[in-house]
């Protein structure tokens, strides 16, 4: 039982707790909701947008009439004001009479000066024409003279070529004699052979003289040895004995080819002979000596024996001798052979002993040695004589060394002169060719001068310009005179209203119009200025309403002109012509133009579109989960506005659609993600 009571209490307490919690939730939700921004939303609708353009302007004249006079005159007095209505012959202003007289005098003086300048220009023109004719005649004369002068130069150049060629021909016909190379080589070879032969003979002569001196020295030594032996032993030897002459009974010093036995009787090669003699003696002292000469003309030769006890054999092709001897205790065989049939000892047989005591071997040896020496000397003398005869013959038929230097020098000089003359011919021909080209250039230049002289000079338009200025000044002068006749007064020629006065009293009249009048015979026009945005809804030929002045009366007209303003770029001038009789010049008014756009699928109230840094956007309503459950939030969406007026805006499709709730009004400023609640209408 207690348990049931306790359970009921717990259940009751739980119910009370949940009721309290529910009440607190309702209370907190009410407090939270009361603090949220209240918004009103609309969905996009399909509609067309209407545009209304209102612009203020002014009525101006459709045609203006300018009243002008000669510029530069001093204004005396102005008789009208802006806005005055004038009619024909209404006095507008007048000019100073004294100033007008001065202007007339100035124009008359200027015209007189121009007429005098014209007269001077005419005289100068005639003088220039005479100069042109004279220059033309002189250029023709110069052309003819240039032709003659250049022909003379060409002729002189031709004469120079002929003379140069004549000199060259004369030079070519007088060539110096030039020995052919074959003949030169032949003479050089002959001289070379002769010189070589003479040098060889001279060498042979020196050698033969040396041999002769050696033979003489050897003969003298042999003779002295024999004389010394005879002086020591008496003339008791065997044989025929020795009496100072050879076996033929002739003096040994008188052999053929020599003037005697004296070495001094031979010219050339003395020192060489002494040297050879010394060498011969050294040969004899060393145990043997062999000397022969087979190069001479007689072919003689000798041979000496061995003094040391050897055998000695001597032979001669032409009466030569041979002998041998032995030293102490040696055997000696001697013999002499001759191709001419001589005896071995030169013609006499001395081998057999004569009457008297027995033969002395030593003496016989010395005598035999003397005979051999004599034979050698004679052979050497014959060889020297033969060589001297050859040298004498060569000296008689002397060969001169060929020398062609002068001949070559003369040829080189001739060639140099030939080259110089050829260069002169080439130079003369080049001058002749240049003279032809020079003539062409000179004639071309002279021809051009003739052509230039026939050309008309630069046109002198002084007369024409002066005449034009005279005509202009005469016109001004006529206006001055007419104005002077009117006492300097200027009148209106049409009916109109004064809209502009561009002159001032005491000042000079400027160029252009002095007074501008609005023509009352033409209808007026309304002029206004539109912005770039307003220009989108107004076009030429559109019908517009015009409210003129303060009367409230409205008239209709068509836009006749619409273009960008030259004075204010970015704005546009619009002109509407008024019906005849409507408006007044200077009257202000208001132009009203309306237009209807196409039908747009998505349009929303213009106040729902916000702009930030040129970017248009709207706030849309979306649902999200919050701490108290599902709640409403504002979300920013960028949009592209296609068209807009003061009430609605057309939005490009894509970012929103026809079911999107657009926030069009709010009690607080909105931002992205702000939690909102519907306003009283939606609740």
TrEMBL record:
Keywords: Coiled coil. Gene3D superfamilies: 2.40.420.20. It is found in: Cell envelope. Residues 243-256, 333-342 have a biased composition (Low complexity). Residues 122-141, 150-172, 179-202, 213-227, 264-274, 360-404 have a biased composition (Basic and acidic residues). Residues 285-332, 343-356 have a biased composition (Gly residues). InterPro entries: UPF0194_transport. Residues 122-415 are annotated as: Disordered. The keyword Cytoplasm does not apply. Signal peptide: none annotated. GO terms for cellular component: cell envelope. This is HlyD family efflux transporter periplasmic adaptor subunit. It comes from Eisenbergiella massiliensis.
